[in-house]
Amino acid sequence: MLARRTTCGDVSCWPSFLTRSTVVPAASRSLGPPCNPPLQFGLRPSPPHSFAAMATSSASSASTSNQETQTPQINSLLVLYPLEPRNLVDKLRANIPNVHFYPQRSAVDYNSTAGPAPVPSAEILANIDAILCFHLYPDLFDGDFLTMTPKLKLIQTEHPLTLANTAGIHATTIGEHALMVTLMLLHKILKVDRVIRKEKKWVGPNELGGRGPDAQLFFTELRGKTFAILGYGHIAREVARLASAFGANIIVATRSIPSEWYTTTSRSSLHSLLNRADIVLNLLPSSADTRGIMGRNEFEQMKDYAIYLNLGRGDTNDQDALAEALKASLEAEDEPMGQTGSLRIAGASIDVSNPEPLPDGHVFLGGLDNMILTPHSCWMSKLNFVRAVDVFLTNAERMNQGLGAINALRGKGE
To answer: PANTHER family, alphabetically (predicted)?
Structure first.
């Protein structure tokens, strides 16, 4: 089972993602607050920022009907992610007989001239039962993966594999980040802070201005605003819970909301949602269906005072169109707002980009004072590593007992 239905009062919460071909309309009814507390370890595909855990079986399947399959035993673990705090490695070693720690670092996370990270030896690879990682690094292995790791069962029918993720562990961290940047943009914290620091003196509200020469600086409250979310997985449900607590109205675009709530699956329904939204949060994964789904036409459908957040994947939006929309807002700061149909939005918060890291001179790196830019870091809480290790140890114990894994994407699940 890849999705578990849960009920919040009279509202059913279904984890899912939008696709280009099956966009739901802008909801003939808004969604109420999600489950409280949100599901942290539901059975579903990996959300945009899921720290992947691959638990594998060292036992071979029975070749004949009179052979019994052995209970898988997790005795040797390869850790490829730089766990912090480091005592999490000790926690793993207290539960797994052999733990090999070979942290791999990507250019997205580290901008340095450090040499290549050490790689596990062929002997270690030959004996590992499980891997805990962010993703499998294709350049880590200099030979055929199956040959080098005979105890692992790859995703083939003749090599049974249990593949599981840690879906939900980032919901708290990214949910808080989403609310933080939303409030920063609505309350114009960036503008106020930058003006005061530039002037190096006290600058009062009247001097900061607003729209028009005589206007004061006015903020926007989240209460009563329409908060649209693209995708409705673990992270989205946590954002919906938090935003609901501030009094926002939540609407979502997702492909598996019960059809009786909607009347169509046409792409125009996405535009209808964007027309209604004051805040648009993109949590979509990268796929053939979602790449470029927020293009020039979609940004034109947004209100000119709306804000856009992308905490999903960078290639799901047209970055040039987004930059143009933000520049247009800066250039038209004294003009009336409240329209749709023009390529102009008030602000944005971007945690993901295409490519990563951004090259020097990229339009996102300078000149857009109405953008909050973070380097794919909204997930970085130490507690996420604690949760990832706890999920892995739970799966290792369950597999040692012959039980299915939680969050299983492939193989035996709970």
So the answer is: 2-HACID_DH_C DOMAIN-CONTAINING PROTEIN (PTHR43333), D-ISOMER SPECIFIC 2-HYDROXYACID DEHYDROGENASE NAD-BINDING DOMAIN-CONTAINING PROTEIN (PTHR43333:SF1)
Task: Output the six-digit token pair for 64.
Answer: 């004949």
Weakest mean pLDDT among 117-121, 211-215, 309-313: 211-215
Same fold, 6-41+170-373 and 56-161+381-410: yes
- For residue 46 the two structure tokens come to 């990996």
Fold classification of 6-41+170-373 (topology level):
Rossmann fold (3.40.50)
Q: Are 78 and 141 in contact (CB under 8 A)?
A: no
- Tens of pLDDT, residues 25-42: 333 333 443 333 332 222
Closest CA to 181 of 218, 217, 222: 222
Domain segments of the chain as ranges: 6-41+170-373, 56-161+381-410
Q: Which amino acid is at 119?
A: V
Among 217, 213, 226, 222, which Cα is nearest to 335's? 213
12 CB-near residues (< 8 Å, 6+ apart): 5, 6, 258
pLDDT at 308: 99
CB of 275 within 8 A of CB of 301? yes
Tokens coding 94: 């207290």
Give the right CATH number for 56-161+381-410 from 2.60.40, 1.10.287, 3.40.50, 1.25.40. 3.40.50
Within 8 A by CB and 6+ apart from 168, the residues are: 38, 39, 40, 41, 42, 47, 50, 234
- The pTM for the full model equals 0.70
Sign of the CA dihedral running 193, 330, 378, 255? positive
